[in-house]
Design goal:
The complex is a heterodimer of chains A (150) and B (176).
Chain A: H1 3-14, H2 24-37, H3 50-77, H4 83-91, H5 93-142
Chain B: H1 3-26, H2 29-45, H3 47-50, H4 56-73, H5 76-85, H6 110-125, H7 128-138, H8 144-151, H9 155-173
Helix pairs in contact in B: 1-2, 1-4, 2-4, 6-9, 7-9, 8-9
Chain lengths: 150, 176
């Protein structure tokens, strides 16, 4: 840096910051009041209370498992539910057959290939996630001052 | 004091810093006010952590900088367009400076105050692609490499933009 650049640098660093307009504070407080009055379910999922987030995640998991487990029972029940259903389902038979074959394929792949290693894989994923979380928290606290969270 | 009262005190304490960072990066008080509001809304969501944290000012500055750069990147085409036009246009010719409210804190020495006001206006009048790296370098203490990485431009462009921004400021301040 030349002397002139040093002088400019010095002047820039001495420059007092522009003051916030008087309208900023009321705007922020109004927005906060509106955000607070909004019901929890209309806000982003990440801002829900912890208990609600845990409950909703558990319900979603249950729903997925339920659909997975109930699929064979439903396909067995539908043809026996009456002629109307049978007729309606008859039209969907080709699609149902393809879906059934696909489900069988997935189930076979699951039991032959994935299930034996699933536990080890799950443990590995959880361990790696924990390591990542610990490292990220450390970096976030030490280097970024917690600012990267937004 | 209620949560709302404590948050109001928090905003009062940091609003000038947040706004100053935003207005210097964006060069537009109205957009800076919008960004400042968004920053404080994010701060409100984490107020429980931030309230007692010594890193709150750093967090606010980083979030403000990130939001401003995001805001500017939405106008990347305009940014590049200005960058190319800059060679032809007279430096610091933007009329934006005239729209600024006089935001300078009272200073005892009138001459110093006048000089600082001229510098602030000259800084705000710089085109985006010169002002942003200059502000990141002088006010946010980022290195040239960091600025290039943050803006997604080459190191040589950062250097040349900062050089040209400084030249414009020196002319405006009579430092030649």
């Amino acid at each position: 840096m030349t002397d002139l650049e040093h002088q400019l640098d010095h002047e820039l660093r001495r420059l007092p910051g522009p003051k916030a307009p008087t309208s900023l504070m009321p705007r922020v407080m109004l927005a906060v009041a509106q955000a607070e009055s909004a019901p929890w379910y209309s806000r982003a999922w990440t801002t829900w209370p912890v208990a609600l987030r845990a409950t909703s995640a558990a319900l979603l998991a249950l729903l997925i498992v339920g659909i997975w487990r109930l699929m064979p029972s439903v396909s067995a029940w539908v043809p026996a539910a009456g002629p109307v259903w049978t007729q309606a389902m008859g039209r969907l038979a080709p699609a149902m057959q393809i879906f059934g074959e696909f489900a069988t394929l997935v189930r076979v792949l699951w039991s032959v290939i994935i299930q034996p290693i699933a536990v080890y894989f799950l443990v590995l994923v959880i361990a790696l996630s924990l390591v990542c979380a610990v490292l990220w928290t450390a970096v976030n606290c030490v280097a970024l001052g917690g600012a990267s969270r937004s | 004091m209620s949560d709302s009262g404590r948050f109001e005190a928090f905003v009062r304490e940091y609003q000038d810093m947040v706004f100053a960072t935003a207005v210097r990066l964006l060069g537009n008080p109205a957009e800076a006010e919008d960004v400042a509001q968004t920053v404080f809304m994010k701060a409100f969501e984490r107020f429980a952590e931030l309230e007692s944290s010594v890193t709150a000012p750093g967090w606010l500055k980083t979030v403000t900088t990130n939001l401003c750069l995001n805001h500017l990147s939405r106008y990347r085409a305009r940014w590049q367009f200005f960058s190319e036009l800059d060679a032809a246009a007279p430096e610091g010719a933007s009329s934006f400076a005239s729209t600024l409210v006089a935001p300078i804190e009272p200073v005892a020495d009138t001459e110093t105050a006048d000089r600082q006001e001229r510098l602030e206006r000259a800084l705000q009048a710089l085109p985006d692609h010169q002002r942003v790296p200059l502000v990141l370098f002088h006010f946010e203490d980022l290195s040239y490499h960091d600025i290039a990485a943050r803006l997604g431009v080459s190191l040589s462009k950062v250097k040349s933009d900062i050089f040209r921004g400084r030249e414009t400021l020196k002319k405006a301040m009579g430092i030649v």
